[in-house]
Amino acid sequence: MAAVRASSLGQKVAIAEKNHSLGEKLLLAGRGRCNFSNAERDIDIFISKYGDNGKFLYSAFSKFGPIETVRFFKKIGVDSIEERGKRIFPTEGGGQRVLDALLMQCKKNKVKLMRSTPVKAIKIKNSRVDYVITQDDEFSADKYIIATGGKSYPRTGSTGDGYKFAQTAGHTITPLYPSLVPIKTKETWVKPASGCNLRNVRLKVFLNGQGIDSRFGEMEFTNFGISGPIVMDLSAHVPDWQGELQFSLDLKPTLTQEILIERVKREIKKFEGQKKFFGLVRSLVPAQMTKLILELSGTQYDKPVEDLSTEEISGLVDLLKDIRLNVNGLWSFNNAVVTRGGVSLKEIDPATMRSKLCENLYLAGEVLDLNGPSGGFNLQACWSTGYVAGSV
After folding, report:
1. Which segments within the chain are labelled E, that is strand?
2. Which of 180, 282, 306, 384 is the most buried (most CB within 10 A)?
């Protein structure tokens, strides 16, 4: 985006690309479908998705925000569609369509693509980038943009190089954590439930026994814990929650305890003499969860439903409303969608993305201390900051 914008203004532009192919991480976005923005039109709500650091984006969004992004991509041949959660996807072609359109603009604007050209270091002189050292050569320019991404999905080439370059220029790097990443749990019973996808559930967060946050939506079990949209969003905050961290999974969040008890009693009355306990459970939860609920309940699986005691019925309802999971850390950067942390925003001019420490250096995208939830917010920050960085 930075290269397309700068070249469209008549600048002579070169991209030093570490990989042989460009945009490898972009191709992974939205599981290949590339959720490239979000249709939320209230800019204050949009900005709030990035937490306290989101205010940094007001200036960039005023120049090139979500509306301008959709128009830009439509203009270069990428039509879009709005889906659940206001997520915006290409109508066809996914990430490859987005990448091809950007590369076509680079070609049209005569951007020089230096493939398989990893930058090894930048040299600073008199508070300016003097030149850049690559694997085989060195080159100089009037202006430089660091748009290397963070540390997430390092197999795509995103290995944190930009932080090293920024530090060379004197920049502060805030602590780095994997974000939008699956969460590990201490419970081993999650493994048999691996792959079970749950919709319309609520995940509550307890820190030292005190409820502090919650999410409603989709999640799934993995071999080592939990994943899915609501889990990934909560993962961004895990490093801040110091203490005993527990999640409570509510499989029936739209029903109160009392209403759910009555529903279970109706099921029992309906199938009296016909069903065992495992059949009752199967009628209340997804098939993949049946075995797990049976094990956690402690009730004999083949017990006739009419023989269930009041305590057993209450115990089942309690379980459906509150399955406890003890957090045991995050998965690594290898599995993270984005990096939390990065170049301190205090050292960047939000109107231009220019370094306040190095006059011809600009920074854009995930290398900055900016991260949002899933839903197109992180790519939107990349488009906006890249556009602004390429505008000067």
Report:
1. 14-16, 37-38, 80-83, 87-90, 112-114, 119-125, 128-134, 138-139, 144-146, 177-179, 183-185, 197-207, 210-221, 225-227, 245-250, 323-330, 338-340, 361-363
2. 384
Beta bridge partners of 139: 132
Residue-number span of the structural domain to which 301 is assigned: 182-331
Distance, CA of 208 to CA of 136 (rounded, Å): 54
Please report the pLDDT score of residue 112 as a whole number. 98
C-beta neighbour count of 347 within 10 angstroms: 17
Determine the 3-state secondary structure of 344 from DSSP.
Answer: coil
Question: Residue 55 is part of a domain; what is its CATH number?
Answer: 3.50.50.60
Q: Which of 178, 124, 173, 126 is nearest to 336 (CA)?
A: 178
Residues of the chain short of pLDDT 70, as ranges, are none
Domain count, the chain: 2
Does the predicted model carry a pTM greater than 0.85? yes
Question: For residue 19, what are its two tokens?
Answer: 């990989």
Which residue, 331, 352, 376, sits at the end of a domain? 331
